[in-house]
């Protein structure tokens, strides 16, 4: 254990030292810590000021009796999401992820398996403290503490309760994964049977959890009103279910953890002490459950680590070939399909990307389609309320976020610089060849999102048309801008700091690149121009900006030196 | 720091002792047999080469012996301690084994010195650490990098550090998976010298390699694997005899003959039987 403590301490200290010496790491870290600190400071500031001018709508007693219940419901929601995430984790294929160094140096060492397992989980427990501290402060922060006149420090039992709950769910999820991944049995059929039983049990729990709560919320929503359901009514119904008997009785630990927040307002009583003890016991038992699988984790960890390390390295360095071959190894790739040759030169680049695309299974797109469907679902939830501004904002944010996912081909191009730079094709055409499919995919995702919004009545005809008009050039512009940053900061795999800085700066550059179109859009909006005209103006501005950015990217590619 | 002439090894045994004993080792992945009934042993003062084509099961064997993956069947004894028994017996066995994987993956956020110290702590061999570690740093050209973070080292230097980590503790059984790949000529020579010194000090060394010329000059015995099974085992002369080769045949020629894919994998079925005895 001495060695593990030494390892953990030295790594932590060296990491801090390295961060302090490197401004590219230090600045983002300070920004992040500053934001966290400001939130806490705001809570204390609100408490110190007293804020007598605010009439507290809820008395501490009302919090105890669960009258408004907003805080409790918010925390319970977080705990339920955490529980669901753990269930999804337990249904996955990987087990605990160790660093390759751990496998090379810890696994062969004469250290106890429990010690290594606990050491690894300890890092997770440490990372779980942050949300456990931050979420109560964020949800119950400045306003609430001002209203009910409690110090943010009084929220500590609630934070501790959340943390213990996170620990317990993480332990149980990992124990379930290890039970499924165990390869110690010589009897294959027995092991396979156990894997199926464990998986079905977890899946059943997930289905009951999600559909049960959804059904209760739906019923509560219908029972509360007659006629169309408004957003407020839906939220109130969800709050009722989360604060209701189902969660309090069936998901007792969730109720214990959230109820401990009430100690801040009502003080300690026997029930609160018992709840805290209950959570401590649950965390302890879950750890013992995890330890009971100690013989299983080396091999599962080895597989998970090798697979994930290979994939992460490939994605970060833009090695699309390795990503595809890993998918093929995992049985996730469709058999080869032929694509007619499109032409010579840059068309060959596009043809190569198309072949890769045809081998990517549809399920790889499911997450993206789910995100794309989100605004339509939200629109239905709020009763089909329309907001042109919200749709435009969604369009920009969605495209901005998704653009990064479609840069794999550019990263691949950079990684294979020895081949791609030697091609007898103009730089701009190479970039267009690499990015054409990404632009098309990004546009199609946007069209899918907009179509769903149109079908559900969230967006009307003219706005729909304008948004469709804007999409292709918007996608092209954002992809070209981000390509510039791939070329400026190519060593994403090796340098985390460079990665973070590139991310920060490229978002800023994207916003700057959108500025002309934003200016034109606002001007046309002020003069009450028709939406389609406004869409055309924005498209033109984005198109010109995209063309200029492509030339900049081509210039960067021409000057790109992999040894620099 | 001046290069010392003495090596890091205490003299473990003067008489030949069986330090690594592998019996009936097998490893099955679902329907695939990575290792089948593999038996061999390595005695003190002996270097054994583990040869075989890609996918023969060399790395799997080494990982089983290092205690990283659990075999489906068989037994592994290190200096008399049962590696697969769990608990203190497993830890005692592991204390005696030093494993150098093919890909060097040292902890990037430790300095070179801290890394050696961590390994010494993990293997509870801190006595005389400073002297041993200092000597190894000089031998492997890492003295100037003593306080550098591992993350700043080149791949070759990381490989040297990983090898130094194997020698910084009092291991009696050394497992090397392709140790010469990535080393510069000086590092390769130093490693060979260290291996020979370890052998002279009475250590048992198992080296998996594709470099047949190195295996021929360095190893006392050879174990040849194919498709998870042992196809031959013995000294080079014994292998020549089994392969019905001339007395001048190189290990390379013998290797290709013995691993040729004609008929059953047990080209020489008597080899496994003899090895098991």
Describe how the helices and strands are arranged.
The complex is a heterodimer of chains A (564) and B (277).
Chain A: H1 2-21, H2 23-49, H3 60-65, H4 70-91, H5 100-106, H6 113-140, H7 142-148, H8 156-181, H9 188-224, H10 231-242, H11 245-250, H12 252-259, H13 263-266, H14 270-291, H15 297-316, H16 320-329, H17 346-358, H18 366-381, H19 388-403, H20 408-415, H21 417-420, H22 427-455, H23 461-488, H24 496-526, H25 531-559
Chain B: E1 18-29, E2 32-43, E3 46-51, H1 58-66, E4 73-78, E5 81-82, H2 87-96, E6 97-100, H3 112-122, H4 129-139, H5 155-167, E7 173-177, H6 185-200, E8 204-208, H7 212-218, E9 221-226, E10 229-234, H8 236-242, H9 251-258, H10 269-276
Parallel strand pairs in B: 3-8, 3-9, 6-7, 7-8
Antiparallel strand pairs in B: 1-2, 1-4, 4-5, 9-10
Q: What is the total tally of β strands of chain B? A: 10
Number of DSSP-assigned strands of chain A: 0
DSSP summary: helix tally of chain B: 10
Q: Name the chain pair with the biggest interface and residue counts per chain.
A: A-B, 31 and 40 residues
The largest β sheet of chain A comes out as: none
Low-confidence stretches of chain A: 50-68
What is the SS-derived class of chain A? mainly alpha
Shape descriptor of chain A reads globular
Total DSSP helices of chain A: 25
Spatial strand order of the main sheet of chain B:
6-7-8-3-9-10
Low-confidence stretches of chain B: 1-14, 262-277
* Estimated radius of gyration of chain A: 27 Å
Largest sheet of chain B: 6 strands, mixed
State the end-to-end CA separation of chain A.
43 Å
Q: Care to describe what's here?
A:
The complex is a heterodimer of chains A (564) and B (277). With 564 residues, chain A is mainly α. Chain A has 25 helices and no strands. The longest helix of chain A is centred in the middle third of the chain and has 37 residues, at 188-224. Chain A is globular and about 70 Å long. The two termini of chain A are 43 Å apart. Mean pLDDT of chain A is 75; it is low at 50-68. Chain B has 277 residues and is an alpha/beta fold. Chain B is 36% helix and 23% strand. Chain B has helices at 58-66, 87-96, 112-122, 129-139, 155-167, 185-200, 212-218, 236-242, 251-258, 269-276, and strands at residues 18-29, 32-43, 46-51, 73-78, 81-82, 97-100, 173-177, 204-208, 221-226, 229-234.
